[in-house]
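LAB NOTEBOOK - FOLDING QUEUE
OPERATOR: T.R.
BATCH SIZE: 2
PURPOSE: Compare the predicted structure-token outputs for two unrelated chains run back to back under identical settings.
PRIORITY: normal
REVIEWER: second-year student, initials M.K.

ITEM 1
FIELD SEQUENCE / FIELD STRUCTURE:
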Amino acid sequence: MNNVEPELGAVQETLLIPLYGRALDARSRRPVLGDRRAAQLVGDIDYDFTRFKGASLPGSVLRTAIFDGWVRRFLAENPTGTVVELGTGLNTRFDRLDNGRVRWFDLDLPDSMALRRSLFEPQERCTMVAGSVLDTDWFDTIAAAPGPYFFVSEAVLLYLSADQVRTVVGQLASRFDGSLFAFDTGGAAMLDNQDRNGAMKSVSARMQWVCEDPRQVEEWGLRLVESRTFAEPQPEVGKTWPVRYRYGLPLVARLVPAMVKSYRMNLFRLDALR
């Protein structure tokens, strides 16, 4: 394949950060995900990925592993259910977790989806949809697939305003009440350090939505099921991580608890009656 030059908006460009993180992980001696497809994609894209540096690269891999854990659990309980990835970027979650029966939708903005379509082949049970998390015109497409539904949005909602996130949650809860919805939240301790983040310094987009406690958003139409930090992944996920993360991250959490607790991965259930 000839190298593809990405033409992405400011926020959309950030999708290249976790892709590079997974590629570096795949090349390591003790990988977390072992996502060789990510390493291939980095080779297929004409972009200077070496500009991305710092702890956010392995952090993005650990975040993905935590979200993978929830999706994997959902599919174990609902093997013919539907997974919807909101702001999918160049994630390869379907390739990692496909059980041969799931119905899957990858949704992202038109420029991101154009890049994805140039790099990914169409698959029978995995549909690529161009759309915004702020819109509802794609809801009918999802609703035509069999339930139950699991929505996952990784490193996406943080770039929206609080009012926009509330709109996303409310719209999903109204149409897909009772479904699971996983997304990450960040407190001021994390967002205030964006300009010192080795990867974020290389892009112009900045995260906007400050959420100190994921329980704060329950009044928007959600019920918190589970919340995790890098130091406290699901037991079945954490036991697969290399020793440097299994023991190192809890130590970091004791030394700088505010910074570790500021960023959380959360599993909610949509609850329109809240």
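ITEM 2
FIELD SEQUENCE / FIELD STRUCTURE:
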Amino acid sequence: MNKTIIKLIESYQKDVSPNWDFKCRHTPSCSNYAKEAYEKHNFLRASFLTTKRLLSCNPLFKPSYDPVPDKKEKRKSND
């Protein structure tokens, strides 16, 4: 599923994004953020992160550097 989403994002970046006359408010761009999220995380987590990012792309939020968080390693308890 993630590979399909990544291909769709790449298609958007190649065919649609260059034709628009605006820049993303954040760094990395929202499409790069989404692509990286789907590369690093499972479908549900990546979808959550991408949706959260897209919702912050409006005048109420200041532009910022907002990288995709790394996967959190599950801790094994030795109790």
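REVIEWER COMMENT (ITEM 2): Helices lie at 2-16, 30-40, 43-55.
FOLLOW-UP: none requested
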